[in-house]
Amino acid sequence: MNFTQSTPSQPSSMTNNVTIVLDNVGKRFNREWIFRHCSYRFEWGKSYAITGSNGSGKSTLLQVISGSLTHNEGTITVTANGQPVADDQLYNHVAIAAPYLELVEEMTAVEMLHFHAQFKTLIPGLTIDEMLKTVSLEKAAHKQIRYYSSGMKQRLKLAQAFFSDTAILLLDEPTTNLDADGVALYHQLINNRIHNRLVIVSSNDKQEYDFCEAVVAIGDYK
Predict the structure, then answer these.
(1) Which of 15-24, 89-98, 194-203 bottoms out in mean pLDDT, i.e. has the lowest?
(2) How many distinct structural domains can be found in the chain?
(3) pLDDT score of 2 more than 60
(4) What is the SS3 assignment for 145?
(5) Residues near 141 by beta carbon (within 8 Å), at least 6 away in sequence
(6) Is 39 among the domain residues?
C-alpha cells in the first residue's frame, strides 16, 4: 500500500489548554444504570485514574468521555483555549488506546501509522520509523499486523495513542497483554510523552496509574 502525505482537517491540538467537565452524567444499558450523577472536572496538564473492579463501568465512563458512547443524562462540556469543542470535532483532540479497539490487520505497522496520520496529526520531531523503534517494533515494521502477537498489537496501539498530537490522552487498561519489557515501555512513554496533556487512565491495576494525581472511583457514582 502507498500513502500520500496529507494534512488532517483540523490543526494540531497538543498545545490547547483543554478541560473536560462532567455535570450529573449518567449512562445506562437497557434499564440498568452503569453509573449516575457523575460530576467531575478534568484539567489540562494533569493525570487522572478511573478505578473500579472488573465490570464496574470504568471503561464505559472512559468511552463516554471520549465521545464514542452517548450518555443518557447530564452534560459533558469540552473546551480548548476557552472555546467549546463541538461533538463532531472532539476526535481531533483525543487519542485513545484500549483493548477493544481494532487494528487494520491487513496493514503493516508503517502503513497503519501513515493511515492514522491522514486523520490525526502525529507529534512533530519523530519519523514513523523512530516511533516504531521506540516501542520495539522496528524489526516487524513491514510485517502485516495479523501476524503480530497480542503484545505486539498492544505496543502498536500505545504508539498510535502516545504519538498522536492531541491534548487529551485516554488509556484503558494500557498494559493488557504486555510482558515485563512492555510494562517498562509503558512507563517510559508515561515519563516522556504526557507533558502538556490531559491524561485519563481506566484501570484497577495500580502500576498502570500510580503516576496519576487524582483518582475517580467509579463506585462513588452507582
Answers:
(1) 15-24
(2) 1
(3) no
(4) helix
(5) 108, 109, 110, 129, 132
(6) yes
